């Protein structure tokens, strides 16, 4: 037979312990729902928290890598755009020189063609010198290569620069013609310059494609790291919602059980009536 005592209510003690345990679990679930994380602090699970923090740090550092690669993309794209302009100008210069090689035209006409030729030549210098992005120019001959971040360790992705200035194309600021013979020679010189320009642009385009591919990889890597961190620390809100409902029901039952246990001692009073 159970001991009837007003000093020690075993039933109430058991009910209170159960209710306290339920309240603790309920607090954990509510915290997960509020933060969206099952592991929000090192106290929740020190080992998993440390792994997640390290991986998150790696993912965050890739932001700088991505920014550097995108800057490289823009620098090369500007250079390629200017290079296309250079090729167009060279084609027009070849037309002018070829027209001037015609011995049947007048001296005045040849001088006009030479003036147009010189203007096109000077436009090449302007196009190349203006091909800058964030102060960097990959086609003006000011540098042999450019390096951008390739990973979170600080390793470099190096792109070889291409010189599309007049000097890099075998021309100079005095390249012109005054007679038909000079014009014939200039046609040959411009043809060579065109071949040089297209080859250099093709090489620069290959470098650009490699940089684009690496940037795509970095984006995928960062997405994978973020997903991995989420798998480690993010809470399953559907599961936590169901658990919340169950714990709230359990809490209500615990309150009722405690109330019943506390009221059981009142029966002792009946023994003295």
Task: Based on the model shown, name its key terms.
single chain, 273 residues, mainly alpha, f41 fragment of flagellin, N-terminal domain, 2 domains, two-stranded antiparallel sheet
Provide a descriptive summary of the structure in words.
68% of the residues lie in helices and 4% in strands. By secondary structure, it is mainly alpha-helical. It folds into 2 domains: 65 residues; 165 residues, f41 fragment of flagellin, N-terminal domain. Strands 1-2 form a two-stranded antiparallel sheet. A hairpin with a 6-residue loop joins strand 1 and strand 2. Helix 1 packs antiparallel against helix 5 and helix 2 runs antiparallel to helix 3. The radius of gyration is 39 Å and the shape is rod-shaped.
Contiguous low-pLDDT stretches (5 residues minimum) are none
Shape summary: rod-shaped
**Secondary structure: helix percent:** 55-70%
CATH fold category name of the largest domain: f41 fragment of flagellin, N-terminal domain
How many domains make up the coordinates? Answer: 2
Order of helices and strands: HHHEEHH
Structural class: mainly alpha
The radius of gyration is 39 Å
Number of helical elements: 5
Strand order, sheet with most strands: 1-2
Beta-strand percentage range? under 5%
User: End-to-end span in angstroms?
Assistant: 22 Å
Find the count of extended strands (DSSP E, 2+ residues). Answer: 2
The fourth-level CATH homologous superfamily of the largest domain is: f41 fragment of flagellin, N-terminal domain
| Largest sheet data | 2 strands, antiparallel
Mean residue pLDDT: 89
The CATH first-level class of the largest domain comes to: Mainly Alpha
CATH architecture of the largest domain: Up-down Bundle
